[in-house]
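Dock alpha-D-glucopyranose; give full complex structure.
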Amino acid sequence: MLSFLKSLLSSSTNNTRIQAQQLLRDNSEDDAYTVPTRVLYPFQWNWDSCFTSLGWVTFDEDRAWAEIASLLKGQCRSGKIPHIIFHKDSESYFPGPDIWQYDNPEMKTSGISQPPVLATTVRMAYERCKNKEQALSFINSIMPKILAYHRWWHERRDPHSTGLVATYHPWETGRDNSVEWDEPLKAVPLDDLQPYVRKDLATINPAYRPTNEDYDYYVALLQLFKTHKYDQIKLYEISPFKVADIGINSILARANSDLLYMMTLCDSSEEDRQTVLNWLDMQAKAFERFWNSDRGVYQSINLITGEKLDFVTSGSFLSLWSGLIPFENASIMASTLENMRHATKVLVPSLSADDAKYDRYRYWRGPVWAIINFMIYDGLKIYDQKLLADQIFNATRTAIKTYGFKEYYDPVSGEGLGGDNFSWTAAMWLYWLDKK
Ligand code: GLC
């Protein structure tokens, strides 16, 4: 009986694996990059692609490296890797390249970036792949590009070397409408806002998406950046929205460690290694500024007012992934997370259900995202919180198996919401399943 059940379980896991592989193939363009989902997000997104390469590497290594090579085609001379690469035209997304008008001679791209997970996912893909020789030769060739990307973050987004890198746009954090950005966004003037038409609401229930008010701020910021020709240092001085996102800062710290590791395998110079070590050292010293000891969590900071953005979000728990926090704080956060299970059966909600702004359906204001869960799972493991980490894995697995590869999930029922056939959910499933 037991063996019958086991074989049933493993055949259903195999079916889901085959479906996930098929989904990536269906969302693949020119055998080179993967769109997050057709219609809603028809281009190449930065951190989506990095996570998606981890799915590819489990069954097609060449395609995994091609994904990264395509992403890097959009890298700007300044080192920035944009948040969207518009390889081809599409009418189903706003704002497209004609709105961004970002002067990138390499390719049509957006004018902002996204959480820098690249170095970490390259390391993970390398560790997972079979053909190490081929992988290492590719990684060697892209090492200067990853270094330039990290340099862009440290020099352009932290010009005074504080150890905290700034972000100027909620889209850059990848957690678009997180409650953390509500207050800082109020400083963005809307007087000169040009008329625009959203396209996302044509396919998705508006109750699941950021509001029109949020969009006004997103577009006003974009228009402001355009006026200043996306001059990063100038924007550091004048952007009305300037936050140190706990997510981006944690991800960059982890990426610096992973970059250092990869440098030991490549032909990197001692000088470059020292540069990365210095960045990491600066971040380690500054990291405590994110800690809110009253709440027992790490939080983003509004760099204009200097205040912490006092919420318990999934971003708070990304600090575990940084590897920079003391064990003591990690165990306080693990208890906080554990306590959140009374209200939200499916961890990790993007906002604690105790918060008045919690909304179990609305994008980053409650729902659960597979890639975030993976990062928190991995972070908990660093701090020996294996039990809680496994609970997060199991919750994600149940949601995916029951509702398929959706954009995100309701933290109460586990129901899949948002875009269908979502690449990074399928990719995460493939990689995570193998890693377990
Ligand atoms: C949304 C998400 C962002 C993601 C993008 C494409 O904007 O908030 O994190 O990269 O969609 O999936």
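Observed: The domain at 2-157+253-281+312-433 is CATH 1.50.10.10 (Glycosyltransferase).
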